[in-house]
TrEMBL record:
Subcellular localization(s) per the UniProt record: Cell outer membrane
SUPFAM superfamilies hit by this protein: Outer membrane efflux proteins (OEP)
Identification of the protein by name: Efflux transporter outer membrane subunit
Family membership: Belongs to the outer membrane factor (OMF) (TC 1.B.17) family.
Length: 481
């Protein structure tokens, strides 16, 4: 008994002192620690400002209908349901890892009509058939002598954190998709209205050309060219309607609702969502802490590091201490002193590491190096996406501003030509041509405004905001890289 107690005490002492595998920490050489990635974002100027990115960035549009679309999507989107299920599964896996080792208990009871082998009891005669029963209770405590179970818990918890980050990625992607689809509906309606104006003007031009031909002041070639232009413009009309319907179908899918249950007025939106302030973009350090894909990659690295310890623990024996009590014998005699049994003592299980255990350790180490490289790649890609988004947004703004200037010139030219026509100094055809040119520039400007709006959405998606206020209650705070 003294030796048994000494063995138990030694196991408890060792379990508190030794943990296999490396402790997790980010290497100093990791890309996330690079100073050149921490400062202000490249491309800042008059279009953006280094202010914190708001959690609900879509509310900068000040569009109640858009806010409602996002709210409904957050409540019913199927991708979010999948992400929530994956997160719940990861948390249960973490609970399972935490429950491994330590105390365990079991109970067993059975009764059977049994013919035992006589020779098994060194008897020459046949043992009589009888009713045999057994009842037993056992308990044991497994020592985490080398920290194998602790590393398993660390790995499972890191995987749960990574699943939380994946759910956050799903949220920000969903919000961007909703805003983008709504913008497409509004843009299609706006461009469709301008296309109808162009078609009407071209129809007037065609009719005028036909009258001039009939009056002997024109030829059939001019009429044919005008009719061709009219038919070309008319052929474009279904494209805008299809873009509008595609946006509505996309919203229907994202919200998991039929078209007739979308918020009122969604299908008839004819004005692009607009942000009337400089876009807040923060800096590189805040970006890397905010983006959930960076957090996910960092947690995956932590899980891979912990799995080295799990693989290393397979080299060492499992040690537990257990006790059992029960009764085995004839059913009529169960519970009598002759049938009672009990036991108490240490249990050691050790598989000699000759079956690839060391290779599994090296495999885990290689996986950790791969996870570190992936983490570095995610960090660098986060900076690239944001810088690219800033550059494209700036370029789209410059193009939009140039087209706005061209539109202003076209408007003035159309006004001057119309005044000349009223004064008899210009033909009606010249007046129509100037008006059609102005309408064409308006169509180009509408398309440019759409590109600016899409660039804004892409930039906000690259900035990684939008998941903070959408967290479900009870979600644990994510680990920071």
């Amino acid at each position: 008994m003294k030796r048994l107690l000494a063995t138990s005490a030694l196991g408890l002492l060792l379990s508190a002192c030794q943990v296999v595998g490396p402790d997790y920490s980010l290497p100093d050489t990791a890309a996330v620690n690079r100073k050149d990635l921490q400062g202000p974002m490249a491309g800042e100027g008059d279009n953006v400002v280094s202010a914190p990115v708001p959690a609900d960035w879509w509310k900068l549009y000040k569009d109640p209908r858009l806010d409602e679309l996002v709210r409904q999507a957050m409540a019913s989107n199927t991708d979010l349901r999948v992400a929530a299920a994956n997160l719940q599964r990861a948390r249960y896996q973490s609970q399972q890892a935490e429950s491994a080792g330590g105390w365990s208990a079991g109970a067993k009871a059975e009764a059977q009509r049994l013919q035992e082998s006589g020779e098994a009891f060194l008897l020459a005669d046949k043992v009589p058939v009888d009713n045999i029963g057994s009842v037993g209770i056992s308990t044991s405590y497994q020592f985490d002598l080398f920290g194998t179970l602790q590393r398993g818990i660390e790995s499972a918890q890191a995987n749960a954190d990574a699943a939380q980050a994946a759910a956050d990625i799903a949220r920000i992607t969903l919000v961007a998709d909703v805003v983008r689809s709504y913008t497409r509906v509004c843009a299609a309606n706006e461009e469709l209205a301008i296309a109808h104006e162009s078609l009407d003007l071209q129809g007037q031009s065609t009719r005028l050309t036909q009258r001039l031909r009939d009056a002997g002041r024109g030829d059939e070639t001019q009429v044919t060219r005008s009719q061709t232009q009219y038919k070309s413009l008319r052929a474009d009309m279904p494209r805008y309607e299809a873009a509008r319907q595609a946006g509505l179908f996309r919203l229907s899918m994202l919200l998991a609702k039929p078209l007739d249950q979308l918020p009122a007025g969604t299908a008839h939106c004819a004005e692009l969502p607009h942000i009337a302030q400089l876009l807040p973009v923060g800096d590189g350090a805040a970006l890397l802490k905010r983006r959930p894909d960076v957090r996910q990659a960092e947690r995956q690295l932590a899980a891979a590091t912990a799995r080295i310890g799990v693989a290393t623990g397979a080299l060492y024996p499992d040690i537990a201490i257990g006790a059992s009590v029960g009764t085995v014998g004839l059913l009529d005699d169960l519970g009598t002193p002759a049938t009672n049994r009990w036991g108490f003592g240490p249990m050691i299980s050790w598989t000699v590491p000759t079956n690839g255990a060391r290779a599994r350790i090296h495999e885990a180490e290689a996986a950790t190096q791969g996870a570190l490289a992936h983490f570095d790649g995610v960090v660098l890609n986060a900076i690239r996406e944001t810088q690219t988004g800033l550059a494209q947004y700036t370029a789209m703004l410059q193009r939009r501003d140039a087209l706005a200037e061209a539109g202003e010139s076209a408007r003035e030219a159309a006004g001057q030509t119309h005044r000349f026509f009223q004064a008899g100094r210009a033909s009606f055809l010249a007046d129509l041509q100037a008006t059609r040119t102005y309408t064409d520039v308006r169509a180009q400007l509408a398309a440019a405004n759409t590109q600016v709006a899409m660039s804004q959405i892409d930039l906000f998606l690259a900035l990684g905001g939008g998941w903070e206020s959408a967290r479900t209650q009870g979600t644990q705070a994510p680990a920071k890289p």
